[in-house]
From TrEMBL:
It comes from the Bacteria. The keyword DNA-binding applies. The keyword Amino-acid biosynthesis does not apply. Belongs to the Fur family. Pfam families: FUR (PF01475). Coiled coil: none annotated. Keywords: DNA-binding, Repressor, Transcription, Transcription regulation, Zinc. This is Fur family transcriptional regulator. It comes from Tigheibacillus jepli.
């Protein structure tokens, strides 16, 4: 974890920002709960346990800054709630998600599935792709198995 904190610190310094204690607490929560796709409010409640003096506005500002610097990705799974996800180290693109419409679980796909699509878009439409987001909505394995076990 310390390696990733140092990396964030360097990324901030490269843009003339400091890793303040409040920013560090926010990044630590994101690292500790990396698989959870937390909302700003959830992050705030977890950060508050580490830094009781922190305010919700500070967490929001920190998340927006980290998002602008492409340290964190701001995502929405269609439920009206913005969630935050640390960008994987060395990742050129945002990773993909599988969202279960039954239980709400979110699974990540780290493989870049759209390399060929990007090349096609660039060659056919002359559009320079900088990033992309792909979210599949469906029913996860666990919900499918539960449905088979308990038929109507």
């Amino acid at each position: 974890m310390e390696h990733r904190i140092d990396r964030v610190k360097k990324l901030l310094h490269a843009q003339s920002y400091k890793l303040t204690p409040q920013r560090e607490a926010t990044v630590r929560v994101l690292l500790e709960r990396e698989q959870d796709h937390l909302s700003a409010e959830e992050i705030y409640l977890l950060v508050k346990e580490k830094a009781p003096e922190i305010g919700l506005a500070t967490v929001y500002r920190t998340l927006e800054l980290l998002s602008e610097l492409k340290i964190v990705d701001k995502i929405n799974f269609g439920d009206g709630v913005s969630r935050y996800d640390l960008r994987k180290e060395g990742a050129e693109h945002f990773h993909h998600h599988l969202v279960c419409i039954e239980c709400g679980s979110v699974e990540e796909i780290v493989d870049d599935l759209l390399v060929d699509v990007e090349k096609l878009v660039e060659s056919e439409w002359g559009f320079q792709v900088k990033d992309h987001r792909l979210t599949f909505h469906g029913i996860c394995k666990q919900c499918q198995q539960a449905a088979v076990k308990t038929p109507l």
